[in-house]
Amino acid sequence: MKAVAQRVAEASVAIDGKVHSSIGRGLFVLLGIHKLDTNEDIEWMVRKIANLRVFEDDNQQMNRDLQSIQGEILVVSQFTLIASTKKGNRPSFNDAADPQKGKALYEDVVRALEATLGCPVKTGVFAANMQVSLVNDGPVTITFDTRNRE
Fold first, then answer.
1. Alpha-carbon distance 102 to 105, whole Å?
2. Per DSSP, what are the bridge partners of residue 4?
3. Which residue is catalytic, options 6, 28, 55, 79?
4. What is the DSSP pairing of strand 2-15 with strand 18-23?
5. How far apart are CA 62 and CA 98, in angstroms?
6. Among 61, 80, 131, 141, which one carries the catalytic annotation?
7. Are 16 and 42 in contact (CB under 8 A)?
8. Which of 52, 80, 123, 136 has the least C-beta neighbours within 10 A?
9. CB 34, CB 1: distance < 8 Å
10. Are 50 and 42 in contact (CB under 8 A)?
11. According to the model, what pLDDT value does residue 150 have?
12. What is the rounded CA–CA span in Å between residue 17 and residue 20?
């Protein structure tokens, strides 16, 4: 499982020209599901995202997490994060979870984040063609990979 979390002033997802979800200040997360991902990967990823301290405190230090600022979160599935470019220039998606597993684990991550954060998690639509807009605040962008836990 891979995720890209961005601290945003605002973010939205549109489908067919209509806004599906939007947030104000908070985190925008792209989430890719690997074919070998398990519940253990979900637990690790949710813990990392929910406790990510990328919001500034009174001393301008990144010391606050999403809950402490009462921020919002938008999570969008993106299987292309699992791409491999080892051979040539055309990405391979062989390691991405099949659509059924990918959707199930994506939804599990969203539910787990809601339970952990105690607030609704906005989402995109799994496998839809989405147009994402965001204002990256900082910019601050953090990546997570359950295959390379740091």
1. 5
2. 30, 143
3. 79
4. antiparallel
5. 37
6. 80
7. no
8. 80
9. yes
10. no
11. 80
12. 9
| Bridge partners, 20 (sequence order) | none
At 40, list the tokens: 């253990």
Choosing from 6, 78, 123, 146, which is the catalytic residue? 78
Which has the closest alpha carbon to 1: 80, 112, 82, 98? 82
Closest CA to 49 of 95, 7, 97: 7
Active site residue 78: yes
Annotated active-site residue 80? The verdict is yes
In the chain, the domains with their CATH numbers are 2-145 (3.50.80.10)
Low-confidence ranges of the chain (pLDDT < 70): none
Residue 67 is among the residues annotated as catalytic for this protein: no
* pLDDT tens per residue across span 56-76: 999 999 999 999 999 999 999
